[in-house]
Amino acid sequence: MDNNVVLTMRGICMTFPGVKALDHVDFTLRKGEIHALMGENGAGKSTLIKCLTGINAFEAGEIRVDGIDGPVVNHSTLDAQKKGISTVYQEVNLCPNLSVAENLFIGREPKTKIGTIDWKTMVKRSQKIVQDLDMDIDVTQNLEEYSLALQQMIAIARAVDMDCKVLILDEPTSSLDDNEVEKLFKLMNQLKAKGVGIIFVTHFLEQVYAVCDRITVLRDGQLVGEYPIEDLPRVKLVAAMMGKDFDDLASIKSDESPVFSDEDILIDAEGMSHKGTIKPFNLQIHKGEVVGLTGLLGSGRSELARVIYGADKNQTGTLKVKGKEAKINAPIDAMKLGMGLLPDDRKAEGIIGDLSVRENIILALQAKRGMFRLLPMSKQIELADKYIDMLQIKTASRETLIKQLSGGNQQKVILGRWLATDPDFLILDEPTRGIDIGTKTEIQKLVLKLAKEGKGIIFISSEIEEMLRTCTKMAVLRDGMKVGEITESLSQETVMKAIAGGDK
Amino acid sequence: MDKVKKITQKRLFLPVFCMFLVMAANIIYDVACGEFAFSFFTISVRNGVLYGRLIDILNRGSEIAILAIGMTLVVSASAGTDISVGSVMSLAASFCCMLLAGYGVSSTTELAVPLIVGVLGGILMGCVCGAFNGTLVAYLNVQPMVATLILFSAARAIGLLLCNNLIVYVRNDSFKFFGGYLGFIPTPIIIAAVCVVVMALLLKKTALGLYVQSVGINKKASRIAGLNSSKIIFVCYLVCGLMAGIAGIVASSRISSADSNNIGLNYEMDAILAVALGGNSLGGGKFSLAGSIIGAYTIQAITTTLYALGVSTDVAPVFKAIIVIIIVTIQAPPFKAYMKRRAARKALAKGGAAA
């Protein structure tokens, strides 16, 4: 093996029921390199990584790791960790009910002489780890006390601490805000200087160009190629990922801003709030309007939407839907008024993992109809096929379990679930997270189309650009409070300024 | 070969296979004893009613099958088990007999209230217990094991209180009906069949199955998708209580009395085992009612077979445990994976030899 190479994968093949997930894929990682693994949803990025870390058993091919003679086959993540391969996945895979320190040292707890866990050392070392990463947290608190972003950082800290040769970051930034991403990059560069090879999977192109040295592109389970970053400008990268040139994202919204009258008010929230998450706010949404909620992570942008939908109980103020006062105690009440919510935490609140794609799509509509009016099977199949086709969901069949789909495709199924209920008002919380650029555009177009049909939409996204392309109005949130609305001269600059809080 | 593979991959293959194993053991035993090989399956009519080992299994297995229906729903929706069903059976029986005999009466041949009142009362008592468990689990978020532990230990005592510390005998032919015969068929078989059919229809014709599984797999996501997760879990426990009530009436009618300390003793374990044997995960989520029912009768078949083999009542549980270990091992995913790898290796060796 070349001295400089820390990991090689040759001719990796892997089949899921009905899908060739990986077809003779090669991958090479060098020491001190940040290597981006790019591709659309279902291209095989996550599968390749799972083959490397022992979660999936690959059928053919060979993996070699620096310092280990002979081919390496990992049977579990633990196995992989012992060989110096650590992973941080797209979704946080830690135990929320254990303390931060326990999570950092789970499976490798420092022991005292008599073999019990040395709690003191564990806490001390944990404190050092988080301090090195500039995180201000109490390591003895339970993990669930911290935001998703912090949990993600802790997951990375855990991986980093295990003296790894290969660090895999699978969409680590999708729940981080800019500030935190910056910190992560700093950390990645530190590790790079130490000679760690980093595999970076992300959908954010800017981030790839900000930190990576090399890019490997996959498409439909096949290797497209490996390129030094200088040789692959953005447009070419996108073309390589999609296998075609894509139409400009910026041009999807028409320039003329629509005018709304008071008669068209769909949602009129006055003084609604939920203790501890969102302070009282007012918000009006008209028919055909796309309202963006923007703010840093944890600013209350998701929470505001959740209160309107009844996912969190409204404690003060009133909500009027189409002019009539509405009493919402649970999501089903909101659904009956024509609402829908695509939650941001797909794994915890979106998918029903062990149910099929079909069942996941019809679930909300069935809930709305009630238990005793079962949708006939023919109708279920028709609906499932319609949305698989319309949203181009990559699945072996409509009866495939949703947990077997890639993250982006799962998201599309959930989107299909809500479209099937034919809502008047749809809340989309990070609908494009973990979704490839091609589909992102499709979803943005879909949002605009729905608005044109007279539906009201709340659109929440960490990407300001994406919101600028779709929203006609933006509400800005800061520290659990709605601080303002921007309706005119929407631009990256004005929005950023509003989020940051201007000169104060 | 492909056909065989297709069959073995069916969800219900293993429960059915296990059932066949037990039956095969019976046939071998019969042959070894020099009896007719299929005496196990022989059904004859004696004294005007059906008679035979198979009938006996179906008859005696009724209570477990009825309990298994409710237990399946509870396991699926709440990823927990209702360990109070055996005690609730006993309580329902006690309440029913108390109503029929009148409070404080230890033995009666005359019914104090119409039969239907007593029976419905008993079943209603089961429902109340189910509702109590359901409230604790669904609305107060008590762990299922802890919540049902309360009635597991208390229900029998409440039954005794209701019966004024007596074993109440109801020696009335009309009450014997539920544990007796309808025409020449044992009534428990019919009651169990009706319960199964009603539940199967509910699962097929309504969205109950989808709701229960959805809540069992992901409670939070189900709520966002418009399901009332708590209510669904509550209903599952309610149904489980209802089934325990029905099973209690049957068990009580068999012995014409309410023996608080013995009715339904250890039945909760058999019911849970039936669900597990049916190939259902005790971790909740997807379930198969048919699997549980087959599991229930498999357990009864094991018990009956052991008695037929002359194993004494005291040591029978040991053999039962061994058989259960074998069945559970066969169904365990690591074992399945091992068999698959072995088959693959064999196929490879064969292919290599051919080349």
Structural class of chain B: mainly alpha
- SS summary, helix count of chain A: 17
CATH A-level architecture of the largest domain in chain A:
3-Layer(aba) Sandwich
The figure for the number of domains of chain A is 3
Strand count, sense and barrel status of the largest sheet of chain B are: 3 strands, mixed
The most extensive interface, with participating residues per chain, is: A-B, 29 and 21 residues
List the quaternary state of the chains.
heterodimer
Order of helices and strands of chain B: HHEEHHHEHHEHEEHHHHEHHHH
Helix content of chain A: 25-40%
Radius of gyration of chain A (Å): 24 Å
CATH-defined fold name of the largest domain in chain A: Rossmann fold
Structural class of chain A: alpha/beta
Q: What proportion strand of chain A?
A: 15-25%
Shape of chain A: globular
The tally of strands of chain B reads 7
Q: Share of helix among residues of chain B? A: 55-70%
CATH class of chain B: Mainly Alpha
Q: What's the CATH H-level homologous superfamily of the largest domain in chain A?
A: P-loop containing nucleotide triphosphate hydrolases
General form of chain B: globular
* Structure summary, number of beta strands of chain A: 19
Beta fraction of chain B: under 5%
Q: Main traits of this protein?
A:
heterodimer; A: 504 residues; alpha/beta; Rossmann fold; six-stranded mixed sheet; 19 strands; 35% helix; B: 355 residues; mainly alpha; ABC transporter involved in vitamin B12 uptake, BtuC; three-stranded mixed sheet; 16 helices
SSE topology:
The complex is a heterodimer of chains A (504) and B (355).
Chain A: E1 5-16, E2 19-30, E3 34-38, H1 45-53, E4 60-65, H2 77-82, E5 85-88, H3 100-105, H4 119-132, H5 148-161, E6 166-170, H6 178-193, E7 197-201, H7 205-211, E8 214-219, E9 222-228, H8 234-242, E10 265-274, E11 278-286, E12 290-294, H9 301-309, E13 316-321, E14 324-325, H10 331-336, E15 339-342, H11 346-350, H12 357-369, H13 377-390, H14 407-420, E16 425-429, H15 437-452, E17 456-460, H16 464-470, E18 473-478, E19 481-486, H17 492-500
Parallel strand pairs in A: 3-7, 3-8, 5-6, 6-7, 12-17, 12-18, 15-16, 16-17
Antiparallel strand pairs in A: 1-2, 1-4, 8-9, 10-11, 10-13, 13-14, 18-19
Helix pairs in contact in A: 12-13, 12-14, 13-14
Chain B: H1 2-8, H2 13-32, E1 44-46, E2 49-51, H3 53-60, H4 62-78, H5 85-101, E3 107-108, H6 115-139, H7 144-162, E4 168-170, H8 173-176, E5 181-182, E6 185-186, H9 187-205, H10 208-217, H11 219-224, H12 229-255, E7 257-258, H13 267-277, H14 289-308, H15 316-331, H16 333-354
Helix pairs in contact in B: 2-14, 3-14, 4-9, 4-10, 4-12, 4-13, 4-14, 5-6, 5-7, 5-12, 6-7, 6-12, 13-14, 14-15
